[in-house]
Write a structure and sequence with these properties.
four-stranded mixed beta sheet; single chain; alpha+beta; five-stranded mixed beta barrel; 255 residues
Length: 255
């Protein structure tokens, strides 16, 4: 049986002497593990469309629940981000998160759309990296059932809370912390809170239609990263690499 999908390559792993296994995120079939025969041979016709972060149309041959690429062609390689190490490492982090959040044979149209929009935002829109990162992290968390409660302090009901608990996903005022609570709280300004509400509830096409100053955008990114990784209870190697590059660049600027 043949199946045609449009998908994003989330991971490429060596298989045998010349083949590779792809993890592909599709809209209707979720995450699929696909064998690409001969991909590691020189001049393979699949080399472009089967690389990490490539978006393509794949015709798959299915036999006993296993998929093999029969033919494929490129829809978008997001070529510009491949020339920028920070953008590429950040995009790879998005791919790792998407792999964790998606399931085999379970439709994930919103997650695939979010990933495509963020890859496009990195490669074509020249948006601040912190903004794209924050949008992906918080919206991905929402799509996976981790939507935070952003409508006032959960203790006193104040509409001007100034703390966000990463574990519970709840807002608090500085003086409302339960003495028995062990969760990590990060400060949140009115501007950051408004941005978080926008990311969680806006239409997908408007995800990047908000603005913050550079410092607040970086704070937002730290908050969304902490929330997502806390909820998933894990880290990501691509995120660690991205942060090491950013730290190195900051050191160079300081010298």
């Amino acid at each position: 049986m043949y199946l045609t999908i449009q998908g994003i390559v989330l991971r490429v792993s060596d298989y045998g002497d010349h083949d590779a296994l792809l993890t592909v995120l599709s809209k209707k079939h979720g995450k699929l593990t696909v064998k690409a025969r001969g991909l590691r041979r020189k001049n393979s016709p699949l080399s472009a469309v089967c690389q990490l972060l490539a978006y393509g149309e794949f015709t798959l041959f299915e036999y006993r629940g296993q998929y093999t690429v029969n033919e494929a062609h490129v829809l978008n390689l997001f070529q510009k981000l491949r020339c920028n190490l920070e953008q590429l490492s950040l995009a790879s982090y998005f791919a790792q998160v998407s792999e964790v959040l998606s399931q085999e044979d379970y439709p994930t149209p919103e997650l695939q759309s979010l990933l495509l929009n963020c890859l496009y935002g990195l490669s074509e829109l020249e948006l601040p990296l912190c903004q794209v990162k924050a949008v992906f992290e918080l919206r991905a968390a929402c799509l996976s059932g981790y939507t935070p409660d952003l409508f006032g302090c959960h203790v006193c009901g104040s509409q001007t809370p100034d703390r966000f608990d990463l574990s519970s996903g709840l807002l608090e005022c500085q003086g409302c912390r339960d003495a028995s609570s062990t969760g990590i709280r990060l400060p949140v300004t009115p501007g950051i809170l408004e941005a978080m509400r926008f990311i969680c509830f806006c239409e997908p096409k408007k995800l990047f239609s908000f603005r913050l100053g550079q410092q607040q955008m970086c704070q937002l990114s730290e908050l969304t990263e902490g929330f997502l990784t806390t909820q998933l209870e894990r880290g990501f190697s691509a995120l660690d690499y991205y942060k090491s590059i950013c730290f190195h660049d900051q050191e160079l600027e300081a010298t």
